[in-house]
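Subject: design request, 232 residues
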């Protein structure tokens, strides 16, 4: 993680967090950056960061030399997360553009296409993930990086399963606690059928066999991190 992004994470306007918490956040974001495989040098690339929230990855792409970065979000920015983004934007004297936009409303005719599209920690929030992926395919020029929780059932992990999820708007009404997390196979198939011709698994959940064992004992599917890289 760069000194610049460290500064953003470690000095929120609302007062410094306890050191242990700060260390955990740094470690988590360092690890995510390592696993995601975002190109080190983004000179000449345009980037769309969907569900940017605090903007960490938008600012990191700007630091890596991207020509243009557009951060979009809806849910968090409508309710509680916009101030964090704006504070970081100001502190970093950033040129990152931002727009309140729902992923389901992405429109290539309005916002154009982007070399790199980031969909990090957003997929499992969506009510209509395939419809969203179809929109995303139309705005992606070179590479989509999608990071999400994926489903780890005891068996049938290689089957394209997805639990029903009503979307964040109605999640409070559901009686189960899993959201819209597909199996790794489900994720790659959904991305492929949404319009991407090349889909590579960049990361599978760690401790898979332990989690599958827990799923067996508790009769409840578990989850872990999955990352795919997809090209149109
Ligand atoms: C878990 S946070 C991930 C934040 C950031 N991308 C990261 O990886 O650290 C999920 C973000 O997705 C946003 N989000 C959820 N549904 C969305 C939608 N339909 N359109 C755009 N953003 C959405 C939320 O507002 C929230 O900021």
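Subject: RE: design request

Done. Sequence follows.
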């Amino acid at each position: 993680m760069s000194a610049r992004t460290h500064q953003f994470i470690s000095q929120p306007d609302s007062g410094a967090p306890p050191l242990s918490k700060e260390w955990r956040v740094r470690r988590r974001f360092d690890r995510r950056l390592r696993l995601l495989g975002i190109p080190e040098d983004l000179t000449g690339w345009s980037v769309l960061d969907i569900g940017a929230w605090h903007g960490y990855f938008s600012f990191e792409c700007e630091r890596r030399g991207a020509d243009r970065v557009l951060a979009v979000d809806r849910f968090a920015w409508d309710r509680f997360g916009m101030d964090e983004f704006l504070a970081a934007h100001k502190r970093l004297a950033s040129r990152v553009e931002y727009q309140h936009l729902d992923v389901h409303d992405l429109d290539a005719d309005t916002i154009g296409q982007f070399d790199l599209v980031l969909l990090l920690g957003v997929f499992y929030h969506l009510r209509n993930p395939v419809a969203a992926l179809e929109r995303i395919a139309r705005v992606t020029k070179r590479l989509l990086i999608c990071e999400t929780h994926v489903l780890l059932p005891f068996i049938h992990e290689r089957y394209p399963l997805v639990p029903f999820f009503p979307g964040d708007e109605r999640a409070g009404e559901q009686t189960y606690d899993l959201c819209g997390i597909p199996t790794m196979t489900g994720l790659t198939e959904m991305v492929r059928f949404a319009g991407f011709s090349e889909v590579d698994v960049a990361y599978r959940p760690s401790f898979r066999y332990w989690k599958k064992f827990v799923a067996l004992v508790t009769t409840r599917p578990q989850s872990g991190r999955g990352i795919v890289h997809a090209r149109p």
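The longest strand covers residues 140-152.
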